[in-house]
Amino acid sequence: MGIVLITGATAGFGQACAETFAAKGFDVIITGRRKDRLEALQTQLTQEFGANVLPLNFDVRDEKEVAAVLGNIPEEWKAVDILVNNAGLAAGLSTIDEGSISDWDAMIDTNVKGLLYVSRTVIPWMRARTTGHIINIGSTAAKHVYAKGNVYCASKAAVDAISQGMRIDLLPYRIKVTAVHPGAAETEFSLVRFKGDEQKAKDVYNGFIPLSAQDVADVVYYCTTLPPHVCINDLVVTPLQQANAYYIDKN
Ligand code: NDP
Ligand code: 8X3
């Protein structure tokens, strides 16, 4: 089937994507900072689906680590067909005058610069083969700014713009670029945003049925199943009860 590289596969969308692509017969490169989870996922994907799995333990914020670990994988794994730039986070939820600078750094360094570092390593491999598909995970937060979302929304708006730029620049190499923008999905996202406060994280999803990680993985996979001449450029997917980034009908 091919090789898919998924960043941030130790939880949420990335893990569900890894399971979905492995189930379809892909060889899977999984990445993340939590080594124990990568190893557990490797075992699961191998046993459950007979998949070939390459786990890579690095922090996408670390340019040198990205180049050293990802840049030096065995040649046969460099024939990446699909790159899912998924690793990301929201850190905190506060007005701009009270925002934490370390939270801002974490979001910009991960969601924007990390995506760029990984892409900069992988794109030349795709370019050399004149084929490939990059799927960048944006957010409804890329499309509309919500209260206290300031820097997170800006980081995802950057993902939106970078996706548009990639699409133009990579057309000569017939590399597809798709931005998938999910709305509210119950993963570890809110637990990370609220720094381990389980109640606060759970409350985000009260009163409506959020997307699941699998819902998003199914959409990502679908985008890769279209004929070679067809590309979904930009896709927004929300729970039925969510109209946009800031309006959810919780009745
Ligand atoms: P999770 O917190 O469940 O998963 C995030 C993944 O990203 C983890 O595997 C984590 O791995 C990885 N990650 C985070 N920071 C780094 C880093 N510095 N280096 C390497 N890997 C990292 O969240 P989701 O699955 O919900 O989020 C995935 C993406 O989807 C993010 O970009 C998020 O912004 C976006 N999104 C989420 C929505 C939601 O409502 N859940 C909606 C729209 C978009 P580890 O900690 O092991 O490094
Ligand atoms: C994550 C979902 O609604 O917090 O992108 O922006 S939201």
TrEMBL record:
Stated family: Belongs to the short-chain dehydrogenases/reductases (SDR) family.
InterPro entries: NAD(P)-bd_dom_sf, Sc_DH/Rdtase_CS, SDR_fam
Protein name: SDR family NAD(P)-dependent oxidoreductase
Keyword Translocase in record: no
Record's keyword annotation contains Oxidoreductase: yes
Keyword tags: Oxidoreductase
Record Gene3D superfamilies: NAD(P)-binding Rossmann-like Domain
Species whose genome carries this gene: Chitinophaga solisilvae
